[in-house]
């Protein structure tokens, strides 16, 4: 076993593969950050709300006023430096820290692909992505022809986890037997030209896309790995993600996955693509200095290998933490985030808090728009950890304003994947007595239905 591991760690491949991935990642992240800034989302999501939902353990991470714009600017510049390979190690560390800070500022904005970008950028800290075709190699006067094979394989592994785990999550009765929530979403796409009022209304289309989506996620990484099916698989990647981008407003994720899937091609393909990029760069008058070629960039640092190994152990096991909790995952969402459960739920709710003054028995209903933006209220209404954090925030507010002895109860109704709405939170539980954490939330009422599957 040890000899096989050593032999694998000694394998190398052309450094152009990782260089092309670095360029694609940097360009997409630069565009994504500029897009976020120009659409006014910084002010809308981070500056206008007076309260921000936090991830447990990261309550100290909050927007920093107008300096939040500086944070986005730093993240944008670091992404650009990653693309061109300038001060790469420092740039990727700064990007990881700044982007992850942005992601943690308000839990309301959580998306799977934000999480993916954070962990991918963390992984890239330990990869020699500036070994070839970078300003770093230009400035030092030499570049590496080859890098360890595991450096590109670990990116393939991360993409495999995202795809395959997404496919496993789709093996459930709502997705396969009821075509939910696609049936809800597709029938509402009647405004799409030509197909909106025709195909998107057909039951067989809903089921076909549900089953097709499951098989796509389960198999696409295997098809990309196999050379004989790689071209067809990549065409499927392009079609699937472009079609998804047309149907659903999911931002940069489709383009990230399309560009990321290029890593599965042979190094010769990556080398040719970089030469095309080089011709484009030279067209604008940027001439490269002649550089020496060094055979191999070694990267067998035991510390680095240990970190990467631990990283993948966590990525492989963490999505299954939901098994530690009783009840329906889609309903209680305990262990739902960070597990590649992509677009599996159409969940809406109405949640109001009742504040009871224990001194005189009087009570009143909290006006949610006093504390939350419309987007925050919408997310709070059906997510139990949001409801609990909101209740504690409201409790602190009223205690500071003279109501010392109070209790807070939730009147909450939620609908899941087309089911009739039902009461969500036990109305007899004083939420101020409940603590945030990873323990099972017994105050979430059980779903009166069963969703079978993984």
Helix-strand layout with pairing:
Layout: H1 2-10, E1 12-14, H2 16-38, H3 41-47, H4 67-84, H5 88-104, H6 112-124, H7 135-140, E2 142-148, H8 150-169, H9 173-177, H10 182-187, H11 203-225, H12 230-247, H13 253-260, H14 267-283, E3 292-296, H15 302-317, H16 329-332, E4 347-357, E5 363-365, H17 374-380, H18 384-400, E6 406-416, E7 422-423
Parallel strand pairs: 2-3
Antiparallel strand pairs: 1-2, 4-5, 4-6, 6-7
Q: Brief overview, please?
A:
With 454 residues, this protein is of the alpha+beta class. The protein is 52% helix and 9% strand. Helix 8 packs antiparallel against helix 11.
Strand order in space, largest sheet: 5-4-6-7
The succession of helices and strands, N to C, reads: HEHHHHHHEHHHHHHHEHHEEHHEE
Number of helices: 18
Separation of the first and last Cα atoms: 32 Å
How would you describe what is shown here?
This protein is α+β, with helices and mostly antiparallel strands. Among the domains are: 183 residues, no CATH class; 88 residues, no CATH class. The chain has 18 helices and 7 strands. The strands form 2 sheets. It has a 4-stranded antiparallel sheet. Strands 1-2-3 form a 3-stranded mixed sheet. Strand 6 and strand 7 form a beta hairpin. Helix 2 packs antiparallel against helix 4, helix 11 packs across helix 12 and helix 12 packs antiparallel against helix 13. The protein is globular, with a radius of gyration of 25 Å. The mean pLDDT is 92.
